[in-house]
Amino acid sequence: MSFLRNYIAIVFVLSVYFFYEGGAIKCWVCRSDSDPKCGDPFDNSSVPITDCKQEPDLEHIPGVRPTMCRKIRQKVKGEWRYFRSCAYLGEPGIGGDERFCLMRTGTYNIWMEYCTCNTKDGCNTGSLTTLSSIAALLFVIVVLYR
């Protein structure tokens, strides 16, 4: 009976975990030109995380929904600005590797770096640990080794 109870608990936790992880992504949405805490290092203590499925449709790309997070680092006339948002288009990282960002330079001393990710909620901060992943893993370990 104990084995069956443990098995049901594990299946339940894993089902909830995979359902949660498979839902819409949540991203930080802010701009450092209006909120200095949005810069680097990022201070998310006053910035609420945004559920991207709640973001509005964009007129110029009808039917496209945000599935990723984006962080843009921009240097204009020597001043750094940071923009964090839900991303509607693009691919995670470069060639699917989120460790690499797309860099562009422009006229008038403008430099931009685009980092796009979809591995976990809040991935556009750079240093957020997904609590649900850790909690699910710890629960399974505790149940198995009781």
Automatic annotation (TrEMBL):
Keywords: Glycoprotein, GPI-anchor, Lipoprotein, Membrane, Signal, Transmembrane, Transmembrane helix. It is a lipid-anchor; GPI-anchor. This is Uncharacterized protein. The chain crosses the membrane at residues 126-145. It is found in: Membrane. One of its GO terms (cellular component) is side of membrane. GO terms for biological process: regulation of synaptic transmission, cholinergic; sleep. InterPro entries: QVR-like (IPR031424), Sleep_regulator (IPR050975).
